[in-house]
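MOLECULE: protein
FOLLOWS: sequence and fold
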Amino acid sequence: MKSVGSSVPQTDVVRLVESFARLDTASVSDALDSIGVAGRLRGIAARVPGARAAGTAYTVRYEPVDESGPRFRNAANYLDDVPAGSIVVIDNGGSAECTNWGSLLTVAAQRFGVRGTVLHGSARDVAEIRNAGYPLFSTHVTMVSGKNRVQLAAIGDPIRIGDVDLRTGDIVVGDDNGVLAVPSELADEVLIRAQRVELTEQSIARAVACGARLDEARERFGYATPWYDAGSAADE
């Protein structure tokens, strides 16, 4: 598959996103593990309990303000240009010193059809964002404004969070467990494997609920390698 962000037909992007949205991040993580790809965005936690998000990444990077620049420095104006269906992924180096997202950006994001925000940095106005039901994930929370502290450095460039390289167009999936990034060229394979993981675990759970031993159910349904063995689970 080519880059989700550019050459793939929009219908295929929508199909991928909708399919990933139905999956738990634990299943996606197991699928990534099975092909040796790191996907967890380390240190980033859900700020709106129960909110789930899946979409294509729109990357934004911040840097400290240039002290020689204008006296007043707005944090950034970019949100009007974010495509509907995106998840905004912001890299501010994991900073706890100031925010890169709040309630005003949330109102705009919901209006524009943005599916969520992932912050390698800090958010504020968390109570308002929870009331809005907007999927927000961040490294930290603080009340301190980003105005006059950080400025926009780049939009659409590759970023690195922990050991994960993330590009605009990659698939981002988040829930109460945290956030994962799936490289766009691997999205189809990861999706199939994650779906098989969920099918296998559902079959094991049903068997145990009906009285089977856990160890026997795991062996029967191929728990160790569900991406290969899920076919037998589907027959149950």
